[in-house]
Structures are given as structure tokens and as C-alpha cells.
Amino acid sequence: MHVIAAFMFGLIFGVGILISGMGNPAKVLNFFDVAGHWDPSLAFVMGGALAVTAVGYRLVLKRPSPLLAETFYVPTTSRIDASLLTGAAIFGVGWGMTGFCPGGVIPMLATGHTEVFAFVASLITGLIVAKYAKAPADRGRSLPTPIHPVHGERP
Asked: Which residue from 136, 137, 99 is spatially nearest to 118, judged by alpha carbons?
């Protein structure tokens, strides 16, 4: 059941990426080009995604548990630190340079374009380098801990 659900959610995500144009690097780069040929349409895509996510989280976290798991896994910190800012900057620069968003590029693998595979290979390499660049004590901290959705209790 988990595999079928993951496939269906991935399929919906991929179709949304394709329909919205977020898989088209030229469209993404035009979104970032506010001084040139600015294309604001992706702001509506992101705004719509934010609205659906905000409502979805409110509804889902009222449940005692997820449908396909024992507990919810949510972030346990809201701390803004150098690691977060550095990662966000690298993410933004990479997206702005290539026009590919890491989540949006996955459905684009089906196109077979060389630049898509080069981006994904670079992404995977960056993830591996980042993992081993962390201090050994910090390597396991990136996983969220389970939290009870209603009372905020940790098991």
C-alpha cells in the first residue's frame, strides 16, 4: 500500500510540475529575471502550493496519526543558523543558475535530456559531500523526531 501511495503522490506531483511549467528552466529563469523578461506566473503556482499546504497541514495534523505510518515526523526546531542560511543560499544560487529546482527536476528525468541528468548527478554529489562535511556528532541530527500532532508530545 505504501508503494502505491508513494507512486500516486509522485505521479500527481510530477504532472503538476509539468503543467505549471516549473520543469522548464527557461520559464524558471524568466521568473527570476525581474529586471528583464519577468514571468510572474510561477508566483501563482508557488502561492497555490503554499495555500494547499497550509490548509493540508492544519487538517492532517488534527488526526491522531497518519494513514500510512505510525506517527507524524515534523521538524522539532525553528532555529535559524549558519547551516540553514548556507544551504538556502546554495539552493537559491543553484536554482537561479540552472533553472532547475531539486524537486521539480525529478519528473524531468523522463525527458532524457543530458542537462537534467547532469543536474541530478550534481545534486546527489552535493548531498553526499554535505553529509560527510558535517561533524560526526551532527550527521544524525537532520532527521526529524516523531511528535504527537495534538499535544506536541515526543515519545
From this structure: 99
Q: How far is it between the farthest Cα atoms of the chain?
A: 52
CA–CA distance, 30 with 138 (Å, rounded to integer): 38
Q: Are 100 and 116 in contact (CB under 8 A)?
A: yes
* 90 vs 97: CA distance, rounded Å: 10
- CA distances, 109 to each of 4, 121, 142 (Å): 20, 11, 27
In the chain, where does DSSP find H-type helix?
A: 2-20, 25-32, 41-60, 82-98, 102-108, 114-133
pLDDT along the chain (155 residues), means of 10: 88 87 87 89 90 92 86 84 88 87 85 92 89 69 56 51
Q: Provide the terminal-to-terminal Cα distance of the chain, rounded to the nearest Å.
A: 26
